[in-house]
Structure formats: C-alpha cells, structure tokens
Design brief:
With about 100 residues, the protein is mostly helical. The chain has four helices and no strands. It is rod-shaped, with a radius of gyration of 29 Å.
Length: about 100
C-alpha cells in the first residue's frame, strides 16, 4: 500500500480494486510523464505524416492541372508548354 493513499475498505486481501488512485498520485514508480511524452511525440509524428501526405496530394493535383492548361492559359502567367511539362512531370514528393 502506498502511504499517501488511504486504504480502500472495499479492497480484498490488501489488493487495491481502484488502481487509478495509484496512477493519479504520480508515484515515482509510475511512468506517467514518460507515457504522456511518448503519446505527445507519437501524436506529433502522426500530424507531420498527415500534413506531408496532404501536401503531396495537393502538389500532384496542381501539377496535373498545370499539365491540362492550354497554351493561351500558360501564356497568361508567362509560362509555355516546356515550362509546364518540366514542372508537371516532377514526382509529387519533389518540391
């Protein structure tokens, strides 16, 4: 039993039926801060991966749209078919 946690009369044979009370008190034996840090790091990695995938999808969509433009539309912003092909043929992961 932890000295700072009152004994729960509903516990049987000295076993705490409510282990959350031990976790909540943050005893040094409990790896709660490390667990929270790990969860935070995993969350950040997942966020970066999702952002990267969304960027790749948008880049691929824009390049496909650029390749579909006609010569007149390309001239409107100072590009030509060779410029569009050079940019549009790049792989989606290439910025």
């Amino acid at each position: 039993m932890h000295p700072n946690i009152p004994h729960d009369p509903s516990s049987a044979a000295g076993f705490d039926l409510f282990p959350a009370t031990i976790i909540a008190c943050g005893t040094p034996r409990e790896p709660i801060p490390r667990l929270l840090a790990l969860q935070s790091a995993v969350g950040k990695v997942i966020t970066v991966l999702i952002d990267t995938i969304l960027d790749w999808q948008e880049r691929a969509r824009q390049r496909q749209e650029l390749l579909s433009l006609g010569d007149r539309a390309l001239q409107d912003f100072g590009a030509n078919r060779a410029d569009a092909s050079a940019e549009g043929d790049k792989p989606f992961w290439s910025a």
